[in-house]
Amino acid sequence: MSVGMAAPRALYACDPDSSRGRLFSEPPSKTRSPFRRDCDRVIHSTAFRRLKHKTQVFVFHEGDHYRTRLTHSLEVAQIARALARQLGLDEDLTETLALAHDLGHPPFGHAGERALDKCLQAHGGFDHNAQTLRVLTALEHRYPEFDGLNLTWESLEGIVKHNGPLMERSGPPAGHHGGSGIPIGIADFNRKFDLELWSFASLEAQVAAFADDIAYDAHDIDDGLRAGLFAVDDLKVMPLTEAIIAEIGHHYPDLDNVRRGAELVRELISYLIGAVVTETQKRLEVAKPQSAQDVRLYHQPMVAFPDSVAQEEAAIKAFLKQRMYRHARVMRVMGEAEGILFDLFARYQASPADLPAEWVEGTERESEGERARRIGNFIAGMTDRFALIEHQRLFDSTPDLR
Hints:
This protein is an all-alpha fold. Helices cover 58% and strands 0% of the residues.
């Protein structure tokens, strides 16, 4: 099959006509599959619109051309659809998972997540994946008969398990949840709507997770180059990017650095997509799954990089961590951003009346933990801009974050 051609629907793809349904029963759409309906609900959600002013790496007012959570999510969806098309998967479900995966991220990127996790440490901590599930099942208020978006079982399963099982089949938490336990929001919802936390997720979800990694690697390189945190030639320290840069130089010896960087990003994405497709097809040939459930019950994930490419991709992440995420300029801004969220959380705890009216109602009847989680939900939904505005409203001095 040539690159770009869509594979026929595979036996192991999720079939919208065989969906396990929704927590709240609804009549089927006359014009859309259940998974297409899920994707449309995500796109029209308030939380999705807010992603346009949530930090990826650079705070929104540092420049118009840096990624935000919204543009990152769109790019993840594009890569995920490309993978799904090559593998014969359901593109609507894949797109749903790609577009929804960051809905639970708070303002100011990972700095905001660290701050909220510390604020909520005594009450179960903060996990952006669990927060995404809260958004999709409780915090969106758009429909008359239920809270949340009432997505299909397959969409919710993919959101929760895209990085693998959360628990052993016998019950104990698995993977990185082994020490901290399954996040409260996920554990609570799972008692109402069993997402089979002990199994792997569908191939559509596994594909969305790898699309997220590919987008991070390539587009954070692009933003780092634009910000002047490193230059194209600095990336020659890694064999993969060194080889791509050499190939670009061979074909375009007089290319300016802006176009060299853009070509590097484009070629890197194509290379990583091809590597995922090749390795996944090999694993599928060995496993021979005949259904989506066979994928879930297999002893390992079926979507993966080849070992050599996994090492190359890890080297890119290590470079970005050192040269971008831990750059003094980024660390200073993110440290100040954490302080803003610490201030807001403490203020709302001490004075719940400072919350908007719709968030104040009922706080007097809540336990300390319930009130803390309510405050955490409110702050997690903020955009960078709104968090700054709230801090300016409630405090005499607010960092500029530049």
